[in-house]
Amino acid sequence: MGRIVVEVMPKPEILDPQGKAVAGALPRLGLSQFTGVRQGKRFELSVDGPVTEELLEAARQAAGTALSNPIIEDVVGVHEAEEN
User: Fold this and answer.
1) What is the rounded CA–CA span in Å between residue 31 and residue 24?
2) What is its EC number (predicted)?
3) 5: burial class by Cβ within 10 Å (0-12, 13-18, 19+)?
4) How remote is the C-alpha of 34 from its chain's centroid?
5) DSSP secondary-structure letter at 84?
6) How many CA within 13 A on the CB side of residue 46?
7) Whose CB among 5, 32, 34, 46 lies 3.0–4.6 Å from 27's, allowing a Cys bridge?
8) What string of H, E and C letters represents the secondary structure of 17-62?
9) pTM above 0.90?
10) Residue 83: pLDDT band by 50, 70, 90 thresholds?
11) Is the pLDDT confidence value at 22 over 90?
12) Closest among 15, 5, 64 to 36, alpha carbons compared
């Protein structure tokens, strides 16, 4: 069984209140070396059998239509999941 990972992030010009909240909390936890945080989404799509280029293309289509809102989000990655 294969897995495909789709990563989606808010467009740079879109406000990210969750990322801003995390960025504000990190210094209070002693983690002041980070200058910004953006929070996105990660989807894991399972497929029967190995991941092929055709399945990756289908995942890209799903990412652009069903898994993201192209008005406010960018699909930043579609790739086969690494085995742990």
Assistant:
1) 10
2) 6.3.5.3
3) middle
4) 19
5) -
6) 2
7) 32
8) HHHHHHHHHHHHCCCCCCCCCCCCEEEEEEECCCCCHHHHHHHHHH
9) no
10) confident
11) yes
12) 15
Q: In this structure, which topology does domain 2-80 adopt according to CATH?
A: Mth169; Chain: A , (3.30.1280)
Q: What is the pLDDT of residues 61-74, one digit of tens each?
A: 999 999 999 999 99
Q: What are phi and psi of 24, to 5 degrees?
A: -75, -30
Residue with tokens 């092929």: 52
Q: CA separation (Å) from 60 to 35, 65, 81?
A: 31, 9, 14
Are the C-beta atoms of 76 and 7 separated by less than 8 Å? yes
The residues, ordered by sequence, that sit 6+ positions from 74 with a Cβ below 8 Å of its Cβ are: 8, 9, 10, 11, 68
Distance from C-alpha of 37 to C-alpha of 21, rounded to nearest angstrom: 9
